[in-house]
Write a structure and sequence with these properties.
Elements: E1 3-6, H1 14-28, E2 35-38, H2 45-53, E3 58-59, E4 69-72, H3 79-87, E5 91-94, H4 98-112, E6 116-120, H5 126-132, E7 138-141, H6 144-148, E8 156-160, H7 166-179, E9 184-186, H8 191-206, E10 209-213, H9 219-230, E11 235-238, E12 253-258, H10 264-276
Parallel strand pairs: 1-12, 2-3, 2-4, 4-5, 6-7, 6-8, 8-9, 10-11, 10-12
Helix pairs in contact: 4-5, 8-9
Bound molecules: iron/sulfur cluster.
């Protein structure tokens, strides 16, 4: 029988817990008119499918809804989309994580003061698209390499995606500071991400192999996987129990971690199957 060790910090973070509870409360309240979520409420397909079955589907765009109410996903939406919903008299239930709201407010404040905004993160991620929607002038960069070729005005504010690695953000900032020492820097990396990163590093030292559970589109889950890979430890990123790899068989002690949008029941399912191998 395999020995399973869980990471000290794993699974739902505060923002995800909050967004899921908001949608669950609507699903549970039979007197409520049903709502939709604008985009997936969190980066976890099982949760999105579960809510769709309970009558709360994820819609892709503001154009897909004409009446009723809509829940905004944990990673937020651009200001223009909020305005469009308001113009259509759609009731907005804000599931945006308070930490992401704080980042949006910072971008909005500096942008109103005439600052150019540089957002460091994954340009295809919903949080980044949302943040960019609060800036008048902005660039999105993903790496220090990209920062080298960026020409920025003197009045520039640099802000991070909540889920990027501290080291990546620092290396981008170093490059930008070289060309413009007067830039303002706002590190909005969420402690939930760092706590899980530190926990998985510790875990990887104690086990033979690591399983990272989480949605394929979940940025923080991918970071956990890459961290273990970089440490040279055998590691697999799976989204549920049906993806447990056969290659795990020779390893006796398995470490288990999960991204911030992975529900506990999926973690338990994986854990129980691993224990029974
Ligand atoms: S990772 Fe942090 S910023 Fe993102 S939803 Fe969770 S608590 Fe909020």
């Amino acid at each position: 029988m395999k020995k399973i060790i869980r990471a000290d910090e794993m699974g739902f973070c505060m923002g995800v817990e909050r967004a899921v509870s908001i949608v669950q409360a609507i699903a549970d309240d039979k007197s409520e008119n049903r709502a939709a979520t604008l985009g997936p409420i969190i980066h976890n397909q099982q949760i999105v499918d579960k809510f769709a079955k309970q009558g709360i589907p994820a819609i892709n765009s503001v154009d897909d809804i004409e009446q009723g109410k809509v829940v905004i996903r944990a990673h937020g939406i651009p200001l223009s989309e909020k305005r469009e919903l308001e113009a259509k008299n759609i009731e907005i239930i804000d599931g945006t994580c308070p930490k992401v709201i704080a980042s949006q407010k910072i971008v909005q404040k500096y942008s109103a003061q005439g600052y150019h905004i540089v957002i460091v993160g994954d340009r295809s991620h919903g949080e980044i698209k949302g943040l960019a929607g609060y800036a008048a002038e902005f660039d999105i960069i993903e790496s220090a390499e990209e920062a080298k070729s960026l020409s920025i005005p003197v009045k520039t504010m640099v802000i991070s995606q909540t889920t990027i690695k501290e080291r990546e953000f620092e290396s981008v900032c170093r490059v930008l500071l070289d060309s413009n020492p007067s830039i303002k820097i706002h590190n909005s990396i969420c402690s939930a991400t760092n706590d899980r990163q530190m926990a998985v590093r510790k875990l990887a030292q104690e086990v033979d192999a690591v399983i990272v559970i989480g949605g394929i589109n979940s940025a923080n889950t991918q970071r956990l996987y890459l961290t273990v890979k970089e440490m040279g430890k055998p590691c697999w990123h799976i989204s549920g129990a049906d993806e447990i790899p056969r290659e795990l068989e020779p390893y006796d002690t398995i470490g288990l971690t999960a991204g911030a949008s992975t529900p506990e029941w999926i973690i338990e399912e994986v854990e129980n199957i691993l224990k029974s191998i």
